[in-house]
Specification:
binds ligand CA2; five-stranded parallel beta sheet; alpha/beta; about 140 residues
Amino acid sequence: MKFLIVNGPNINMLGIREPDIYGTLTYEGLLEYLKGEAARLGCEVEFFQSNSEGELVTAIQKALGRVDGIVINPAAYTHTSVAILDALKAVSIPAVEVHISDVDSREAFRQISYAGLACKHTIKGQGFDGYRQAMVWLKAHCS
Ligand code: CA2
């Protein structure tokens, strides 16, 4: 199986600010960790991160016919973006939503997820391991 792992705005700042919420691993460190975990699962993986909503929509569209599953942390766009929701619905690729923090125990606005409406499963509050868990879930349910 091949997965696309999509990350939204400010995820490239991981490890630089707010380590109490988002941990101390950098974005590059996260990619290295996930490359290793994907290999252990016997899966291929590619990554995309952008701070721009339109670029995230385009990356999801371009995944059509190329990947078997999408792991997506739309970050702040989770709570605002109908465009990302529509892109996930348009490609209809099995998707799992990941949040590093436990959004349910944070501000009320973080408890609304538009993207999640198009995802088969959501993993919250598991830190960086949530992305690995999402790949495991997709492999078990969508292969
Ligand atoms: O918990 C998550 O993974 C979030 O998707 C992260 C988003 C936040 O807006 C969502 O509500 C929950 C924010 C990502 C920002 O990442 C930062 C990393 C380092 C320093 C500051 C922000």
